[in-house]
Design a protein that fits this description.
heterodimer; A: 117 residues; mainly alpha; Helix Hairpins; elongated; B: mainly alpha; 33 helices; 2 strands; 2% strand
């Protein structure tokens, strides 16, 4: 399974980068989201994957008695998901605004700071 | 001493606020600044004559050995008197020359700044503070050359001068650091104690080259001379003060100051003699072709600086004495000639020698000053110029090697300097007055008195050389030559070889003056040779460098986001591939991997399908929807692999993102087929390579052992310390609680941004 997930990570990276290389602003955002997912999966894999053993201490015990999933990558990814949501929300609204003002979502027409172009 | 330097800075700053007062009739009052400093330094003559040296030291950055320490010895005094004395006359002259100029206050501020910096330069004992003052003179010179800032030529000349002298300044800094490193001190006086150490050190050559680089650029030696004729674009008082009498002598001062410490070696003497001689001959030859009065003076100034460097190169006591006397002589006559040129320019509106004649009829006192200045310049007795020239011949004749050659070079240069002096000082006043100039009248006495005063001083010094010897030169010589013999300046040495050579110089000078007439034809001829001059070569190189940097920058910084991303990713691909494949040993241990189940395969396939669809679909809505699918597939993955918290978060966040996207999407334009297919293919290959490398990287990492120290800490203490059983939650809200707080702040900022962007009402101008 790890091999499969490693390949999925690669695909997510490739798709993310490819979308970021497009000229449309919407695709740029989609690319960033895909890349973010790829990074999350990478971190998740680095903590090794464990099936059916969430890092929750059983009701009656005070410490873990058996093998458990690594909580550190999970905490990291949780933070990453939330932060990337903030980024995405802001970016989406910014794209909308930029399109309203400039009338284009083509990045090649946004590469100047001059108002008149 | 510190206050005498600070005075100029204070006046310069005060002029920012009080400029309006001094711009009108009170400008002449500023002359009091250099005048009082001149008197102040005069009062030191008896102290210095008695052989004492005045020191003053103020700690500045003691940990680096950088202090504001000043020393006033014979050499510093000579220069200080020159700076303040000529400064007084130039300040007075300016108030009439630039009368009612809009920026007269600025001009005085720059002049005061320059004077203060120049005084600091010649008084500094610390090499680092000397460097600071050295750069300040370059900077004030830049402002003064570019004073007429609406003229393009003026700006360009200012930039060239700053460039050349600025590079020299860097050389000086490097030299100073190196000398400080070798002797472990930045004090020039202390360096003198380490003469042996310095001269035998392996870095001696490098240090000397740096000092030479600084001196040659500042004192306009060949092949760095070309900024000086350009600097003549400055108003005439500036040319007088900075570019003939004082600033350009800073390089000479540096060489003189270091000749006891670094000098008397083959490298030092030979280089200086060769560079000095080349400069003398090159510029003396060039001045024949000039018709602009200031152009002639510029080249004769370069020739004179060449003579000074040449004399320092000879290095004997006679040569150093000759150099010091010649510094004074040159300052006196060259400053006068420049001021006279300024008067002619001011009154007639031209400096073209072929159009000027007969001005003695309208400008008699100026003509007298010009005539005497020419006599001093030509070395005609009984002027001080004669004494100066004698000393030069005395020095060259007594050299052990090549005395004849060295003397011949000096004679040729002196003949041409004689010519230059007479062309500028005498020629405009001779002959028939053109009718256009008949209505000229005398300028304000503030303009013609200063040159007259200077040439009178030249005559008096000539008749009583004792004055100049005891007051300035003897002290300066004794501060430079360690075991000096008694040496007396005289006007009359009796009939000897030197006198013969003087007579020869005068005779040939008169012949050259009579035979050679400045013509435009000659000037045009020399212009054609400009192509191969050091100036053109430098400009060619700088332009080439500029073009190169432009194309370099445009290649990397072309403003296309995808270009930047492609560059970054491309570089990463190369770096990653190099690391991964340089020691490639991927052994997959299948036993350590978890087994495949049908669910998992289904989810992975779903995810891959959704990703591919997102990338290739032509509908934005479909792309966003399939993005949602990717997100939910992630939820399931997290669920399978024991991460319920992640699954919940991903679920809510993904839902929100999709909703937000759809809400916004209908406002945006449809996808367009923007990129060319070739480009898409290129980007596709690049992305796939990158993704493939990441996959390999993941597999490689999975082979390594995992460090679970941190994990174990959290797992064990989650309940015991923090009383929580969900370890992920405990990490986020307890162990790393502050991080989470910051994260919440980030979200609030983002929310505020979103809110602001939605509510923002644009002005009509922006909506277009």
């Amino acid at each position: 399974m790890e091999i499969l997930l490693a390949i999925v990570t690669g695909i997510l990276y490739a798709a993310g980068i490819y979308m970021m290389l497009r000229r449309s602003l919407v695709k740029l955002i989609l690319g960033i989201i895909l890349l973010g997912n790829g990074v999350n999966l990478l971190i998740f894999l680095l903590g090794r994957i464990t099936k059916g053993k969430p890092p929750i201490i059983p009701e009656e015990a005070k410490v873990f008695e058996e093998l458990y999933a690594d909580p550190v990558p999970q905490a990291l990814i949780l933070t990453a998901i939330v932060i990337s949501f903030g980024l995405q929300a802001f970016a989406i609204i910014l794209v909308k605004r930029a399109y309203k003002v400039l009338g284009t979502d083509d990045l090649d027409q946004l590469n100047t700071t001059d108002e008149d172009s | 001493m510190l206050y005498s330097i600070l005075a100029g800075f204070v006046v310069a700053i005060a002029l920012i606020f009080t400029g309006k007062i001094f711009k009108s009739k009170w400008s002449v009052a500023l002359t009091l600044l250099p005048l009082s400093l001149f008197v102040y330094f005069l009062s030191y003559i008896p102290t210095i004559q008695s052989g004492a040296t005045v020191f003053q030291s103020i700690s500045w950055i003691p940990s680096f050995g950088v202090n504001l320490s000043f020393q006033l010895d014979g050499l510093s005094l000579l220069f200080s008197l020159m700076i303040t004395g000529i400064g007084t006359l130039v300040f007075a002259y300016t108030s009439a020359y630039l009368k009612k100029h809009v920026y007269l206050d600025r001009f005085y501020a720059y002049l005061s700044l320059f004077m203060a910096a120049m005084l600091g330069l010649v008084l500094s004992d610390n090499l680092i503070s000397l460097f600071v003052f050295w750069e300040l003179t370059s900077i004030s010179s830049f402002y003064l050359i570019g004073f007429n800032n609406t003229s393009e030529a003026s700006r360009k000349s200012a930039l060239t001068a700053l460039g050349i002298t600025g590079i020299g300044g860097l050389f000086l800094l490097a030299g100073a650091l190196l000398l400080g490193y070798i002797t472990n001190s930045y004090s020039i006086v202390e360096m003198l104690q380490h003469k042996e150490l310095l001269q035998q050190h392996e870095f001696y050559l490098v240090a000397v080259v740096f000092i030479f680089g600084a001196a040659f650029t500042k004192s306009a030696q060949f092949p760095f001379h070309f900024w000086l004729p350009g600097a003549m674009k400055a108003p005439t008082p500036v040319s007088t003060y900075l570019h003939s009498a004082t600033m350009v002598k800073a390089g000479v001062y540096l060489l003189l100051r270091f000749s006891p410490t670094l000098g008397s070696t083959e490298l030092w003497n030979t280089t200086l003699i060769i560079v000095g001689a080349a400069t003398m001959l090159y510029s003396a030859f060039h001045l024949i072709f000039r018709t602009d009065l200031k152009g002639i003076l510029a080249y004769s100034t370069i020739a004179a600086l060449g003579i000074l460097v040449f004399l320092i190169g000879l290095g004997t006591q006679a040569a150093i004495t000759a150099a010091l006397v010649f510094i004074v002589v040159h300052a006196l006559y060259k400053a006068s000639l420049f001021l006279i040129t300024g008067i002619i320019d001011h009154e007639t509106g031209t400096r073209d020698i072929t159009q000027l004649a007969g001005l003695r009829k309208v400008l008699m006192p100026v003509a007298v000053a010009g005539f005497i200045a020419a006599l001093i310049s030509g070395g005609v007795p009984p002027s001080i110029g004669f004494v100066g020239k004698d000393l030069i011949y005395e020095a060259t004749l007594h050299m052990p090697n090549n005395a004849v050659l060295l003397t011949a070079i000096a004679i040729v240069t002196n003949i041409l300097l004689f010519y230059a002096g007479f062309v500028v000082g005498v020629k405009p006043f001779m002959g028939k007055l053109p009718t256009t100039f008949e209505n000229l009248h005398m300028p304000s006495s503030l303009m013609w008195v200063p040159p007259l005063l200077m040439v009178t001083a030249g005559l008096v010094f000539g008749m009583f050389p004792n004055l100049i010897e005891t007051a300035f030169v003897a002290n300066a010589v004794s501060s430079l030559v360690i075991d000096n013999e008694a040496f007396h300046l005289k006007l009359w040495h009796g009939f000897n070889t030197v006198l013969g050579l003087s007579a020869l110089t005068l005779g040939l000078g008169v012949i050259v003056y009579v035979v050679l007439k400045p013509k435009h034809k000659l000037e045009n001829f020399i212009e054609k040779l400009e192509v191969a001059s050091p100036k053109s070569i430098l400009f060619f190189l700088t332009n080439g460098f500029e073009d190169f940097s432009k194309s370099w920058t445009n290649f990397f910084q072309n403003g296309y986001l995808r270009h930047y991303i492609a560059t970054i990713v491309g570089f990463l691909v190369i770096a990653l591939a190099f690391i991964i494949f340089s020691n490639f040993d991927l052994k997959l241990d299948f036993s350590s991997f978890s087994e495949l189940t049908a669910y998992e395969i289904a989810i992975v396939l779903m995810m891959i399908g959704a990703v591919v669809f997102t990338v290739f679909t032509n509908s934005r809505l479909a792309a966003v929807a399939s993005m949602g699918v990717v997100g939910f597939a992630f939820c399931l993955l997290f669920l399978f692999y024991s991460a319920p918290d992640l699954a919940m978060t991903q679920f809510s966040v993904d839902t929100l993102t999709v909703i937000l996207f759809v809400l916004v999407l209908y406002k945006l334009p449809k996808y367009l087929h923007l990129s060319k297919n070739v480009l898409r293919l290129e980007h596709g290959i690049l992305s796939l390579t990158f993704g493939g490398l990441i996959s390999i990287l993941v597999l490689k990492v999975l082979q390594e052992d995992q460090n679970s120290e941190i994990t174990n800490f959290y797992a064990e203490n989650s309940y015991l310390l923090a009383k929580g059983k969900n370890v992920v939650n405990v990490i986020l809200v307890d162990f790393r609680g502050v991080d989470t707080l910051v994260e919440i702040s980030v979200l609030i900022v983002a929310a505020l941004g979103v809110f602001g962007l939605l509510k923002l009402r644009l002005k009509t101008r922006d909506k277009k």
